[in-house]
Amino acid sequence: MRGAFGSGASAPGPPALRRPDGTHGGRRRAVDPVASRPRDRAPGTPSRRGPRRLAAVNALAIALLAGAAARLSAQDVGAILDRAVAAYGNVTTLRADFVQRIHDPMLAADESSRGEFLQQRPNKFVMRWREPRGDLIVSDGQNLWVYLPSSTPNQVVRTALSNRTGENGDLVAEFLDHPRDRFTVAFDRAEAVGNRAADVLGLTPRDRNAAYRRVLIWVDRRDDLVRQVEITETSGAVRRITFDRLRTNQPMPASTFAFRPPAGARVVDATH
Protein backbone atom coordinates (compact mmCIF):
# COMPACT_ATOMS: atom_id res chain seq x y z
CA MET A 1 0.00 0.00 0.00
CA ARG A 2 1.32 3.41 -0.89
CA GLY A 3 1.86 5.98 1.79
CA ALA A 4 0.38 9.39 2.14
CA PHE A 5 3.01 10.87 -0.15
CA GLY A 6 3.25 7.98 -2.56
CA SER A 7 5.85 5.24 -2.64
CA GLY A 8 8.66 5.33 -0.12
CA ALA A 9 8.87 8.24 2.27
CA SER A 10 9.16 11.20 -0.06
CA ALA A 11 8.08 14.56 1.27
CA PRO A 12 5.88 17.20 -0.36
CA GLY A 13 8.61 19.24 -2.02
CA PRO A 14 11.96 18.21 -3.34
CA PRO A 15 5.96 19.15 -3.16
CA ALA A 16 -6.19 24.60 -21.02
CA LEU A 17 -7.73 26.18 -22.65
CA ARG A 18 -5.61 25.88 -25.72
CA ARG A 19 -6.73 27.77 -28.71
CA PRO A 20 -5.79 26.62 -32.20
CA ASP A 21 -3.14 28.89 -33.70
CA GLY A 22 -3.67 27.84 -37.27
CA THR A 23 -5.30 30.35 -39.58
CA HIS A 24 -8.03 29.74 -42.09
CA GLY A 25 -6.58 29.98 -45.56
CA GLY A 26 -7.34 28.96 -49.08
CA ARG A 27 -8.94 30.72 -52.00
CA ARG A 28 -12.17 32.63 -51.63
CA ARG A 29 -14.99 30.60 -53.13
CA ALA A 30 -17.30 32.20 -55.65
CA VAL A 31 -20.76 32.69 -54.22
CA ASP A 32 -23.37 30.48 -55.83
CA PRO A 33 -26.55 32.56 -55.82
CA VAL A 34 -28.70 29.43 -55.91
CA ALA A 35 -26.95 27.52 -53.16
CA SER A 36 -26.66 30.57 -50.90
CA ARG A 37 -30.29 31.61 -50.94
CA PRO A 38 -32.81 30.15 -48.48
CA ARG A 39 -34.59 27.08 -49.67
CA ASP A 40 -38.32 27.27 -50.13
CA ARG A 41 -40.11 25.82 -47.11
CA ALA A 42 -43.67 25.26 -46.12
CA PRO A 43 -45.35 27.98 -44.03
CA GLY A 44 -44.67 27.51 -40.30
CA THR A 45 -41.56 25.40 -40.87
CA PRO A 46 -38.72 26.80 -38.68
CA SER A 47 -35.65 28.03 -40.47
CA ARG A 48 -32.41 26.09 -40.05
CA ARG A 49 -30.43 29.32 -40.26
CA GLY A 50 -31.20 30.25 -36.63
CA PRO A 51 -29.38 27.32 -35.00
CA ARG A 52 -26.54 27.65 -37.52
CA ARG A 53 -26.16 31.34 -36.74
CA LEU A 54 -26.21 30.59 -33.00
CA ALA A 55 -23.50 27.95 -33.42
CA ALA A 56 -21.40 30.40 -35.43
CA VAL A 57 -21.83 33.10 -32.78
CA ASN A 58 -20.87 30.64 -30.01
CA ALA A 59 -17.78 29.56 -31.92
CA LEU A 60 -16.77 33.19 -32.42
CA ALA A 61 -17.30 33.95 -28.72
CA ILE A 62 -15.14 30.98 -27.71
CA ALA A 63 -12.39 32.09 -30.07
CA LEU A 64 -12.50 35.64 -28.71
CA LEU A 65 -12.37 34.41 -25.11
CA ALA A 66 -9.43 32.16 -25.91
CA GLY A 67 -7.64 35.07 -27.52
CA ALA A 68 -8.34 37.24 -24.47
CA ALA A 69 -6.95 34.54 -22.19
CA ALA A 70 -3.80 34.34 -24.30
CA ARG A 71 -3.35 38.12 -24.09
CA LEU A 72 -3.98 37.99 -20.34
CA SER A 73 -1.29 35.37 -19.88
CA ALA A 74 1.28 37.49 -21.64
CA GLN A 75 0.42 40.73 -19.84
CA ASP A 76 -0.63 39.75 -16.33
CA VAL A 77 1.09 36.50 -15.37
CA GLY A 78 3.83 38.48 -13.64
CA ALA A 79 1.30 40.50 -11.67
CA ILE A 80 -0.58 37.37 -10.57
CA LEU A 81 2.66 35.75 -9.45
CA ASP A 82 3.78 38.88 -7.60
CA ARG A 83 0.48 39.08 -5.73
CA ALA A 84 0.77 35.42 -4.70
CA VAL A 85 4.32 35.93 -3.46
CA ALA A 86 3.32 39.08 -1.54
CA ALA A 87 0.26 37.41 0.03
CA TYR A 88 2.33 34.45 1.15
CA GLY A 89 4.95 36.81 2.53
CA ASN A 90 2.29 38.27 4.86
CA VAL A 91 1.49 34.86 6.32
CA THR A 92 3.06 34.02 9.69
CA THR A 93 0.87 31.01 10.47
CA LEU A 94 -1.60 29.08 8.37
CA ARG A 95 -4.14 26.39 9.19
CA ALA A 96 -6.18 24.58 6.55
CA ASP A 97 -7.89 21.32 5.71
CA PHE A 98 -6.39 19.48 2.75
CA VAL A 99 -7.29 16.74 0.32
CA GLN A 100 -4.53 14.98 -1.58
CA ARG A 101 -5.14 13.00 -4.74
CA ILE A 102 -2.45 10.97 -6.48
CA HIS A 103 -2.69 9.43 -9.93
CA ASP A 104 0.07 6.96 -10.80
CA PRO A 105 -0.07 5.88 -14.46
CA MET A 106 2.60 3.22 -13.91
CA LEU A 107 0.39 1.45 -11.38
CA ALA A 108 -2.87 2.52 -13.04
CA ALA A 109 -3.96 3.56 -9.57
CA ASP A 110 -5.58 6.56 -7.91
CA GLU A 111 -5.43 7.42 -4.23
CA SER A 112 -7.17 10.00 -2.11
CA SER A 113 -6.35 11.09 1.42
CA ARG A 114 -7.21 14.03 3.67
CA GLY A 115 -6.17 15.79 6.83
CA GLU A 116 -5.03 19.09 8.35
CA PHE A 117 -2.14 21.34 7.37
CA LEU A 118 -0.58 23.69 9.94
CA GLN A 119 2.29 26.03 9.27
CA GLN A 120 4.49 28.53 11.03
CA ARG A 121 6.79 30.36 8.72
CA PRO A 122 9.56 30.26 7.76
CA ASN A 123 10.33 26.58 8.28
CA LYS A 124 7.81 24.72 10.44
CA PHE A 125 4.76 22.79 9.32
CA VAL A 126 2.69 19.71 10.03
CA MET A 127 0.59 17.57 7.72
CA ARG A 128 -1.60 15.39 9.93
CA TRP A 129 -3.75 12.85 8.11
CA ARG A 130 -7.25 11.92 9.16
CA GLU A 131 -7.51 9.38 6.33
CA PRO A 132 -5.38 7.32 6.65
CA ARG A 133 -5.41 8.17 10.34
CA GLY A 134 -2.04 8.38 12.02
CA ASP A 135 0.10 9.36 9.04
CA LEU A 136 2.17 12.41 9.80
CA ILE A 137 4.80 14.69 8.28
CA VAL A 138 6.44 17.28 10.53
CA SER A 139 9.05 19.94 9.91
CA ASP A 140 10.35 21.24 13.25
CA GLY A 141 12.69 23.75 11.62
CA GLN A 142 15.74 21.48 11.80
CA ASN A 143 14.51 18.10 10.60
CA LEU A 144 11.75 16.79 8.39
CA TRP A 145 10.08 13.77 10.00
CA VAL A 146 7.99 11.37 7.89
CA TYR A 147 5.92 8.82 9.79
CA LEU A 148 3.51 6.81 7.66
CA PRO A 149 2.23 3.84 9.67
CA SER A 150 -0.42 3.13 7.01
CA SER A 151 2.32 1.95 4.62
CA THR A 152 5.54 1.57 6.64
CA PRO A 153 4.65 0.83 10.26
CA ASN A 154 7.30 1.20 12.96
CA GLN A 155 9.52 3.34 10.74
CA VAL A 156 10.32 7.04 10.85
CA VAL A 157 12.37 8.80 8.17
CA ARG A 158 14.38 11.83 9.25
CA THR A 159 15.92 14.35 6.85
CA ALA A 160 18.02 17.29 8.05
CA LEU A 161 16.79 20.56 6.54
CA SER A 162 19.18 22.98 4.91
CA ASN A 163 16.51 25.73 4.93
CA ARG A 164 17.86 26.94 1.61
CA THR A 165 15.40 28.12 -1.03
CA GLY A 166 13.36 25.16 -2.20
CA GLU A 167 14.88 22.82 0.40
CA ASN A 168 12.84 23.43 3.53
CA GLY A 169 10.07 20.92 2.83
CA ASP A 170 7.37 23.61 2.66
CA LEU A 171 5.15 22.59 -0.22
CA VAL A 172 3.94 26.18 -0.82
CA ALA A 173 7.22 28.04 -0.28
CA GLU A 174 8.82 25.49 -2.59
CA PHE A 175 7.13 27.28 -5.48
CA LEU A 176 6.88 30.86 -4.19
CA ASP A 177 10.44 31.46 -2.99
CA HIS A 178 12.20 33.42 -5.78
CA PRO A 179 10.02 31.72 -8.42
CA ARG A 180 11.37 33.66 -11.41
CA ASP A 181 14.89 32.48 -10.67
CA ARG A 182 13.83 28.86 -10.49
CA PHE A 183 10.90 28.45 -12.88
CA THR A 184 9.54 29.43 -16.25
CA VAL A 185 6.10 30.76 -15.36
CA ALA A 186 3.09 30.92 -17.68
CA PHE A 187 -0.65 31.48 -17.38
CA ASP A 188 -2.45 28.17 -17.83
CA ARG A 189 -6.15 28.89 -17.36
CA ALA A 190 -8.82 30.37 -15.11
CA GLU A 191 -10.48 27.75 -12.92
CA ALA A 192 -12.34 27.83 -9.63
CA VAL A 193 -11.34 25.82 -6.57
CA GLY A 194 -14.60 25.01 -4.86
CA ASN A 195 -16.47 28.32 -4.90
CA ARG A 196 -13.30 30.43 -5.14
CA ALA A 197 -12.33 31.94 -8.51
CA ALA A 198 -8.65 31.40 -9.24
CA ASP A 199 -5.96 31.89 -11.86
CA VAL A 200 -3.84 28.84 -12.64
CA LEU A 201 -0.12 29.38 -13.23
CA GLY A 202 2.14 26.75 -14.74
CA LEU A 203 5.69 26.52 -13.36
CA THR A 204 8.36 24.57 -15.24
CA PRO A 205 11.60 24.11 -13.28
CA ARG A 206 14.77 25.48 -14.82
CA ASP A 207 16.79 22.82 -13.02
CA ARG A 208 16.82 19.71 -15.16
CA ASN A 209 17.49 17.63 -12.06
CA ALA A 210 14.34 18.78 -10.27
CA ALA A 211 12.16 16.07 -8.75
CA TYR A 212 9.17 17.15 -10.85
CA ARG A 213 8.44 18.11 -14.42
CA ARG A 214 5.81 20.78 -13.97
CA VAL A 215 3.72 22.40 -11.27
CA LEU A 216 0.35 24.14 -11.38
CA ILE A 217 -0.72 26.55 -8.65
CA TRP A 218 -4.23 27.97 -8.25
CA VAL A 219 -4.01 31.58 -7.02
CA ASP A 220 -7.18 32.86 -5.37
CA ARG A 221 -8.45 36.05 -7.03
CA ARG A 222 -9.74 37.48 -3.75
CA ASP A 223 -6.91 36.99 -1.28
CA ASP A 224 -4.08 35.80 -3.64
CA LEU A 225 -3.38 32.73 -1.51
CA VAL A 226 -2.59 29.41 -3.15
CA ARG A 227 -5.67 27.17 -2.93
CA GLN A 228 -4.40 24.20 -4.88
CA VAL A 229 -1.11 22.70 -6.03
CA GLU A 230 -0.64 20.02 -8.69
CA ILE A 231 2.77 18.41 -9.12
CA THR A 232 3.71 16.21 -12.07
CA GLU A 233 6.64 14.14 -10.88
CA THR A 234 9.44 12.80 -13.08
CA SER A 235 7.89 9.34 -12.78
CA GLY A 236 4.71 10.64 -14.39
CA ALA A 237 2.69 10.47 -11.16
CA VAL A 238 0.44 13.47 -10.61
CA ARG A 239 -0.13 14.73 -7.06
CA ARG A 240 -2.84 17.34 -6.39
CA ILE A 241 -3.29 18.97 -2.97
CA THR A 242 -6.36 21.13 -2.39
CA PHE A 243 -6.63 23.47 0.60
CA ASP A 244 -9.91 24.49 2.22
CA ARG A 245 -10.94 26.64 5.20
CA LEU A 246 -7.70 28.62 5.19
CA ARG A 247 -7.07 30.60 8.40
CA THR A 248 -4.02 32.80 8.61
CA ASN A 249 -1.98 34.46 11.35
CA GLN A 250 -3.57 32.67 14.30
CA PRO A 251 -1.32 31.85 17.30
CA MET A 252 -0.04 28.27 17.51
CA PRO A 253 1.81 26.70 20.46
CA ALA A 254 5.38 25.52 19.92
CA SER A 255 4.28 21.96 20.70
CA THR A 256 2.33 21.93 17.43
CA PHE A 257 5.56 21.35 15.50
CA ALA A 258 7.34 19.02 17.94
CA PHE A 259 7.79 15.36 17.03
CA ARG A 260 9.14 12.42 18.99
CA PRO A 261 9.43 9.04 17.26
CA PRO A 262 7.09 6.44 18.77
CA ALA A 263 8.66 3.95 21.13
CA GLY A 264 10.17 1.02 19.24
CA ALA A 265 10.11 2.78 15.85
CA ARG A 266 13.20 2.50 13.67
CA VAL A 267 14.57 5.91 12.66
CA VAL A 268 16.08 6.01 9.15
CA ASP A 269 18.39 8.94 8.41
CA ALA A 270 17.78 10.07 4.82
CA THR A 271 20.08 13.10 4.93
CA HIS A 272 22.41 13.13 1.92
Q: Secondary-structure map with pairings?
A:
Layout: H1 33-36, H2 49-89, E1 93-104, E2 109-120, E3 124-131, E4 136-140, E5 143-147, E6 155-160, H3 173-176, H4 179-182, E7 183-190, E8 198-205, E9 212-220, E10 226-233, E11 238-248, E12 266-269
Parallel strand pairs: 6-12
Antiparallel strand pairs: 1-2, 1-11, 2-3, 3-4, 4-5, 5-6, 7-8, 8-9, 9-10, 10-11
Please summarize what this structure is.
The chain has 272 residues and is of the alpha+beta class.
Q: Can you tell me the CATH topology of the domain at 81-269? A: outer membrane lipoprotein receptor (LolB), chain A
Classify the beta-strand content into a percent band.
35-45%
Distance between the termini: 26 Å
CATH superfamily of the domain at 81-269: Lipoprotein localisation LolA/LolB/LppX
Tertiary shape: globular
Overall radius of gyration: 25 Å
Q: What is the number of beta strands?
A: 12
Biggest sheet record: 12 strands, mixed
Mean pLDDT: 79
CATH class of the domain at 81-269: Mainly Beta
Q: Spans of 5+ residues with little confidence (pLDDT < 50)?
A: 1-43
